[in-house]
């Protein structure tokens, strides 16, 4: 018995993202802008400093400037230093965003001109730092205060706004501090007459699929899809121990069969999959299984991402080989909305 299940995941590597929201269209070149203030997730091709100096390759045998100790492949959303080439990145988490070592012997390193992306009618990411629309009322339907009010004790830097200015942001909902709760603004509390923070109701540009909530958390975000023969809440490890199911992990640091592998008692070795989950455009991925093997792949490609063998002998799964009656999805740092049939499916 062979079966197939489609998932939706997102892919950051598109040149232009066109997103439909409330009857309007945003066009943003994601190669040239960042979705968060630090730009840890940035994988675009900008390879010059803000001053126009060409960047040094992150991995080179004859560097003009020796890279700092501790910078390794795990610090790059591309997967490796080699794949990051000489593109602007932020492997050290600098506050001002992507940077690089320069090819000028007199300038060791400098920041790059990678501004915040701007979406005017909706938010692409969970925090919505990129939101630059006109909504100026908080969720309580209270008018927002001006960001550039000189009487305010704390004024955020202009670089924290997609408008590139507090003045241009006016009193509109923004997220200059990167609050994971989403765009917000200051409002005046009628009871205390004091200013306080309040979130705004800004819709997502897309509402179906799987994506990072916080784009800069690309390395820690994971999705776990459990396929089971029994309707019992359980972890992948428990399903494997009972012989009742398996678990597939999808993440930027590795994807594949993470519980129920026939190859070894503990977790199967995952296939490196940098960039498979991001904060950008939706894509379809699929799972197919049968004969004791399960395959994870991307729609439109022949070569699968991973093929793993799972235990289907002398256990519950062996009673009806290839038959998974229940599916559940969980994750860390991800947002999902999947078009699965509700019958026999649990979304936790």
From TrEMBL:
One Gene Ontology cellular component: extracellular space
One GO MF term: endopeptidase activity
GO biological process: negative regulation of phosphatidylinositol 3-kinase/protein kinase B signal transduction
Signal peptide boundaries: 1-19
Domain of life, per lineage: Eukaryota
Record carries keyword Disulfide bond: yes
Pfam families, per the entry: Kringle
Domain named Kringle: residues: 38-117, 124-205
Cited InterPro entries: Kringle (IPR000001), Kringle-like (IPR013806), Kringle_CS (IPR018056), Kringle_sf (IPR038178), Serine_protease_kringle (IPR050759)
Assigned keywords, A-Z: Disulfide bond, Kringle, Signal
Record-linked PANTHER family: PHOSPHOINOSITIDE-3-KINASE-INTERACTING PROTEIN 1, PLASMINOGEN-RELATED
Protein name according to UniProt: (California timema) hypothetical protein
Naturally occurring in which organism (per UniProt): Timema californicum (California timema)
């Amino acid at each position: 018995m062979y079966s197939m299940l489609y998932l939706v995941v997102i892919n950051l590597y598109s040149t232009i993202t066109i997103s439909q929201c409330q009857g309007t269209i945003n066009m943003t070149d994601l190669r040239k802008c960042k979705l968060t203030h630090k730009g840890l997730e940035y994988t675009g091709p900008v390879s010059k400093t803000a001053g126009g100096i060409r960047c040094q390759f992150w991995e080179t045998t004859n560097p003009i400037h020796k890279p700092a100790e501790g910078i390794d492949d795990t610090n790059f959303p591309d997967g490796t230093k080699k794949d990051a080439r000489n593109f602007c990145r932020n492997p050290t988490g600098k506050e001002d965003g992507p940077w690089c070592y320069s090819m000028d012997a007199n300038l060791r390193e400098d920041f790059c001109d990678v501004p915040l992306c701007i979406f005017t009618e909706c938010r692409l990411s969970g925090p919505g730092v990129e939101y630059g629309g006109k909504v100026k009322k908080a969720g309580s339907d209270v008018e927002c205060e001006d960001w550039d009010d000189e009487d305010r004790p704390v004024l955020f830097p202009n670089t924290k706004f997609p408008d590139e200015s507090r003045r241009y942001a006016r009193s509109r909902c923004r997220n200059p501090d990167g609050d994971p709760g989403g765009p917000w603004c200051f409002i005046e509390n009628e009871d205390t007459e004091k200013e306080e923070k309040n979130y705004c109701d800004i819709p997502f540009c897309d509402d179906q699929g799987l994506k990072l909530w916080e784009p800069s958390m690309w390395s820690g975000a994971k999705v776990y899809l459990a396929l089971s023969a029994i309707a019992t809440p359980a972890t992948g490890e428990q399903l494997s121990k009972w012989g009742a199911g398996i678990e597939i992990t999808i993440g930027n640091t590795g994807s594949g069969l993470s519980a129920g592998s026939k190859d070894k008692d503990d977790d199967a070795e995952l296939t490196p999959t940098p960039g498979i989950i991001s904060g950008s455009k939706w894509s379809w991925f699929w799972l197919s299984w049968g004969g004791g093997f399960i395959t994870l792949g991307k729609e439109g490609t022949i070569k699968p991402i991973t093929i793993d063998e799972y235990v289907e002998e002398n256990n519950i799964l062996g009673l009806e080989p290839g038959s998974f009656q229940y599916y559940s999805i969980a994750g860390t740092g991800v947002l999902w909305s999947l078009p699965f049939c509700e019958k026999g499916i649990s979304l936790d």
